[in-house]
Specification:
This protein has 223 residues and is α+β, with helices and mostly antiparallel strands. Helices cover 61% and strands 13% of the residues. The protein is built from eleven helices and four strands, in the order αααααααβββααβαα. The chain is elongated, with a radius of gyration of 19 Å. It starts with a helix and ends with a helix.
Length: 223
């Protein structure tokens, strides 16, 4: 990591493509979020890249190849910059920040539609015990469960093997999924993660018992 940062410090970031800027910032965000560390050399490089992104503005990233994907990466990195207290605060250009938010929201709306069956399964299992609603938490789709011990609610995220997990090593989350979950957790009082494969194989009574147990474990930490 230090070698990468040292190499980056010797480069003129004005020569970098939009894709290189967004990919490097996203890599920094995942590294910081998943390891709990914030290496000083990478932090300095991230500051320089945010400054360059702000200088270029929204149009530059919108017009690059696969623009929406890279705008989404910028927004994820921006949230991590705010959480880390990165000097400059990430995306300072208001127009660029607004576009990254819009692209991320549109993508999450698509995910919400794709997960309508997941939402129905969880809502049905918890009916009569908790109020559950699909919500945007920190700009990401999640199911928000109301609980008297959690004023901001408990976020429940259903993960899927082909979207959220690496093939090798098996069972490990993608870095981008870990980053998304961390940001969701920052916007509520707790996070429950459950695998769709485990939900669908169990009858409704076992689904309910499993979900309620996880929710109460999170809520008990708040009391």
């Amino acid at each position: 990591v230090d070698a990468l940062a040292a190499w980056g410090s010797q480069q003129s970031v004005q020569q970098w493509t939009e894709q290189e800027i967004s990919n490097t910032l996203f890599a920094w965000a995942i590294l910081a979020a998943t390891t709990g560390g914030d290496i000083a050399s990478m932090r300095t490089l991230a500051q320089r890249l945010f400054q360059e992104a702000n200088r270029r503005g929204a149009q530059s990233f919108q017009s690059c190849v696969d623009g929406p994907r890279h705008l989404g990466k910028l927004y994820g990195a921006h949230l991590e910059a705010l959480h880390r207290g990165l000097p400059g605060g990430g995306l300072a250009d208001k127009a660029l920040l607004q576009v990254t938010k819009k692209v991320t929201a549109e993508h999450q709306q698509d995910i919400s539609k794709q997960q309508s069956q997941n939402t129905k399964t969880v809502t049905t299992a918890l009916q009569g015990h908790y109020e559950v609603q699909a919500a945007m938490v920190q700009g990401y789709h999640a199911l928000l469960v109301s609980h008297p011990s959690c004023l901001r609610g408990v976020a429940l995220v259903v993960t899927q093997r082909n979207r959220d997990y690496l093939r090798h090593p098996a069972g490990r989350l993608y870095g981008m999924t870990e980053l998304r979950l961390k940001h969701i957790k920052q916007g509520c009082d707790g996070l429950v993660l459950c695998k769709w494969s485990e939900l669908k194989k169990n009858p409704i009574e076992q689904r309910r018992e499993m979900l309620m147990q996880h929710i109460e474990q999170v809520a008990n930490k708040m009391t």
